[in-house]
Amino acid sequence: MTKTYKELVENNQLIRPQGYERESSDCTIRAFALVSNIPYEEVHKEFEKKGRKRGRGFHIVTTKLKNKRSFKYKREKMDIKKLCKHFGLECKQIARSGTVNRLIKKYPIGNIYCVKRGHCFGIINGNVTDGTSKASLLHNAWLIKQELGEKE
């Protein structure tokens, strides 16, 4: 049975599962795997299907841009709502700005997927999953629930 990324971290095992040790710029995958409790390998494969290349960052968005010419460079993107639906999860956008500390005070319980400038990370029951400072400014945050239809 494949261990989830959360179990790997709790057991002080590999940060990246075997076969992915040399992966880089994968904070979107690591954070989503942690907060959704889905194995890293499954999330990685889904991101690859959506166009992510190994060692390259990936952008999470909530809506499609109307004017694609507004970006100077082509950016790879994935819609978080479609990703959650694919895995049978429910996501709700809970913040579009503010600090990590303020978000934790407002939502002390739950799995939260967060995006700040140039980085993604997770918050599980008030604990930041990597070394991100609690004073960091957020761009977006989504509350991830394990099953569709689960009540708050």
What topology does this entry show?
Blueprint (H helix, E strand, L loop, with lengths): L4 H6 L16 H10 L3 H10 L9 E3 L15 E3 H7 L3 E6 L4 H7 L4 E6 L2 E6 L2 E2 L11 E6 L7
Parallel strand pairs: 1-2
Antiparallel strand pairs: 3-7, 4-5, 4-7, 5-6
Labels describing this entry:
152 residues; alpha+beta; five-stranded antiparallel beta sheet; single chain
Written account of the structure:
The protein has 152 residues and is α+β, with helices and mostly antiparallel strands. The protein has one domain (5-145). The chain has helices at 5-10, 27-36, 40-49, 80-86, 100-106, and strands at 59-61, 77-79, 90-95, 111-116, 119-124, 127-128, 140-145. The chain has a 5-stranded antiparallel β-sheet with strand order 3-7-4-5-6, covered by helices on one side. Helix 2 packs across helix 3. The radius of gyration is 15 Å and the shape is globular. Residues 70-75 have low confidence and may be disordered.
